[in-house]
Amino acid sequence: MRASILAARAAVLIAAGVSIASGQHTIRQIDLITLSHTDVGYTDQPSVARELHKKFLDIALDACLRTAKLPPAQRYYWTTESQLAVFDWWKSAPEERRRLFLEMVRAGQIAVGALSCNNTPFMNAEEWHTATHWLPDSVWKQVQPDFAVQSDVNGMPRAGAMKLLDRGVHRLLMGINIDSGGRAFPAPAAFWWKMPDGRKMFVWQGEHYGIAYNYFEPKGWIGGNSRVGNTASRPPRPGEFLRSDEASVRAAHKYCLEKLAALESGGYKLPRLLMSLTNQWRWDNDTPFPPIVEFVATWNRLKLEPVLRLTTGAVALRDMEQEVGAQVPVYEGEWTDWWANGDASAPREVAASRLAKRYLRAARSETWGPVDAGTEARADEILRDLVLFDEHTWGSAYSISRPWSLDAQAQFAEKAMLAYRPMAYAEWLLGARMHLRLDKQPGGIYVANPGTKPASGWVRFPRRSPRREFQSLEDAATGRAVPVEFENADESLLVSQAPAPVDVKTEGAPVARFWVENLAPGAILRLTLSDRKAPAEAAGERPSVETGEKGWPTAIRWKGMKQPLFLSGFGDFLAVEVDGSRSLVASLAAGSGTEKDQAEGRKHLREVPARATAETEVEMTPHTTVYRQRLEHPRLRYLIRTLEVWNDEPRVRLTLRLYRESSEKPEAFYANFRFPAEGVFPVISSGGVPFVPFREQLGATCRDYLALDGWAQYKTADAGEWLWVTRDAAMVTVGGPNTLARLKEPAGEPSRLMAMLFNNFWHTNFVADQHGAMDFQFDLVWREKIDNPDALADILMTDPLVLVNPPERADPVFDHLWKP
């Protein structure tokens, strides 16, 4: 394994035109970039971690000021990984401290990274805009970020890189943690990353921020993940490591040369080496370490080689680009993240965050009129919460080993609120925009389509909302009668998929529903209550349906389709269980050991499908046919799947409702989908940037599972195109479950897509045992041609919205309730 990695590293450098001269040391300079890795949580509760980073910035500022009048080589330098710390600090800092901070920025002793935080690949385009506009414009212009940092995480969406390029930032410092994943290329490495639009970003794929210390000290010092309030632990003091006396520095130099020789023997031949350096108290959320100045000064005074230089990320990247930018290779592809599966450990919170994004998108629609400053201000607050929810830290360092500890529960409570709070505020904002637009209109039932494609589907509202009895509705413009059906609130109607910003899940409460067909984008339809029962609607021609055992559909075909909408196995449920410990899972995830070791380890994985236990129930309406079936699985208290089939449109909606029994053992749940597109790979999207898995990925990035915005598109040459849409589950696998497979090449049939519903394999930082009821919903449509999959997916996920407006005029004083 080691030999193959070294050979690959050498091949990369040879391809870049960098000479590899045997026995010749080529590293002439090591740039040390001192920083604090920003985890919003992990060591401390998220709110405490944010407070700490404000204090770290004050410490760093004082250390910079203390050395500001010394020669440049004897000054302290500080890099802020994330703008989050600067934003928080700036809001409360006195004017004089702000002035001194900007003075150190202008002097080159402090540099600010251009991203808000270290991210996961679940941010949408709006979040990426917010993440690259975290600081007020007035502050951005003064600190002038020209580089970005992504630490710990082993991926970076192109959507984020392109937003950075839009801001004039074209350098990226990656400090990858290889735990349970890996690097895109053998590290360290410099390369140009080419975007789909042809623009390029200069990337330094460096070592993990905690590794630089190990180039100088043979023994570790790290104090663990102690909380800041733990009085048995503390930051290191001068003289405890990286001592600046001559003997200590010479010993460090000797050890460093051994490490560099090993690096160069692996093929590294660039003239300089960039290393992020954090303190050794905790690594994560760690304090600055000012004594590094004396260590570096002694090293250079002794004329030891290579030269050490304390500097910022901005200067180090700029100099590296100037020195080797013409030599290093150019690569293309999506930089997928191995840690993304951790998000699937908390399906409910992920669903809430995605619902918040849909609400917000609908709220900002100009269907309700121009978007005013108050709406944009509220939207910015919502997006900032969502960005922090999609930040890479998901909980306590002990969230797996001690999942029910107060620390683990407290940290995830704060994390979860970053999904639930924006969900509530985005729903309120959408409702407020609708009220301000429609409250002063004549009474009626208003139905609106805030999307950019025509919308069709059921519209539901509580029967009692109009405060009077009615039998049907009438189109106020044409007089057309609109039949209404009455039903009790269905247990399978999910709060996360409520079709309007009203509560439709009051158990047993009567619900009215009616059908809307091809409501135009941006249109608002006014309906009035009627005491007359509307004539029954004639059912359109239904598609042909093939069913399998116990009546579950296995294929459906509408007129004009050469192939069915899906193949047998659509909507099946599969669990992957582990006959072994989390250490086995960690070993498989890391790819450690020989290929034989990995093969032996995978024998402990067991795939357990659910089985149908009852005949499928069928309900027919004039517009849809609904199939409902109960399944059994040993890990679930219940599992119900419902398939709603549109009569006159090639479209279905699958809803899975399950109840996971409590268990801390590692396992993963998947929903299966198969399409008649043999050999075709899907197109998926991350942050609004589409890519084809396996075909358009960077280096050795994750292929086992993939985060996506919410849709996958299958295109065929002569049978049309399929668009699969997921509202709640945020990850897919291609070809099969691919559990701990560490794929390099495709496995299985690419037209088999699996949604990852749940996964608690990750051995730290994520949720160990989320259990109870979980809901997942998926839509699938077929078209001869799909020109804008994102817009179509949006309309499939956002059903027509309804507002019940009584005939009585609203008192204008209640506008206060709706104005942001």
What are the SSEs and their pairings?
Blueprint lengths: L1 H14 L13 E6 L11 H22 L10 E3 L2 H10 L2 H12 L3 E3 L12 H7 L5 H7 L4 E5 L5 H9 L4 E6 L12 E6 L5 E7 L39 H20 L6 E6 L14 H10 L5 E5 L1 H12 L5 E3 L14 H17 L9 H17 L16 H33 L5 E5 L6 E8 L9 E4 L5 E3 L1 E4 L21 E10 L4 E7 L13 E4 L5 E5 L15 E6 L3 H9 L4 H8 L2 E5 L1 E2 L4 E4 L3 E9 L3 E11 L4 E10 L6 E8 L8 E4 L2 E3 L14 E2 L3 E5 L5 E6 L4 E4 L17 E8 L12 E12 L5 H9 L3 E5 L9 H4 L2
Helix pairs in contact: 2-3, 5-12, 11-12, 11-13, 12-13
Fill in the keyword field for this structure.
820 residues, alpha+beta, 7-stranded beta/alpha barrel, Beta-galactosidase, Chain A, domain 5, 2 domains, 10-stranded antiparallel beta sheet
Commentary on this structure:
The chain is of the alpha+beta class and 820 residues long. It folds into 2 domains: 331 residues, Glycoside hydrolase 38, N terminal domain (7-stranded beta/alpha barrel, Alpha-Beta Barrel), CATH 3.20.110.10; 254 residues, Distorted Sandwich (Beta-galactosidase, Chain A, domain 5). The chain contains 17 helices and 36 strands. The strands form 8 sheets. Strands 22, 23, 24, 25, 26, 28, 29, 31, 32 and 35 form a 10-stranded antiparallel β-sheet that branches. A 6-stranded antiparallel β-sheet has the order 21-20-27-34-33-30, with no helix packed on it. Helix 12 packs antiparallel against helix 13. The longest helix has 33 residues. The chain is globular, with a radius of gyration of 29 Å. It starts with a helix and ends with a helix.
